[in-house]
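Notes to self after the Tuesday call (sharing in case useful).
The group wants a holo model before anyone commits to mutagenesis around the pocket. I volunteered. Ligand is FE2/S2 (inorganic) cluster. Logging inputs and output together so the record is complete.
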Amino acid sequence: MPALYRKPSPPSDDKRWKIVETRMRRMGNRPAALIEALHSAQEAFGYLDENALLFVGDTLGVPHSRVYGVATFYSFFTLKPQGEHTCVVCTGTACYINGAKDILAGLERELGVRPKQTTPDNKVSVLTARCLGACSLAPAVIVDGEVAGKVKAGELIARLEAM
Ligand code: FES
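Result:
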């Protein structure tokens, strides 16, 4: 590490940054940890804003262009500010054949929102992910960080509408 290296400061005092920092440190604060670190930041905050991208890039020594490149290349990452609630619909094979398609269709029909979009009232943002690792629960979704399994489109929509 160069003598003048100064550890970048997190964008805010939000405790969730500690989680992200710990994850990056465990992986040696190296450029190779970029995707993992972005996942960790997105898990913690629901989306990646500019400050998050710059902080992760600076901590891992990755050029900002590369950070943006990676964050925009992978469909799992979203750079948009999110609605109050986040609903991640798994579109992995098990979930897809067990109803993820109906869930996405229902969200679009009833709430007017497609993946990577936020409802006009800014309440709910919809994201998709490839296999959440809970295939026995297919179709699975994550609402505000909590996994829900064997989800029925109608029930999910009712729950989101009530939020
Ligand atoms: S395919 Fe959805 S959890 Fe694995």
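Two things stood out.
The CA atoms of residues 103 and 153 lie 5 Å apart.
The longest strand covers residues 85-90.
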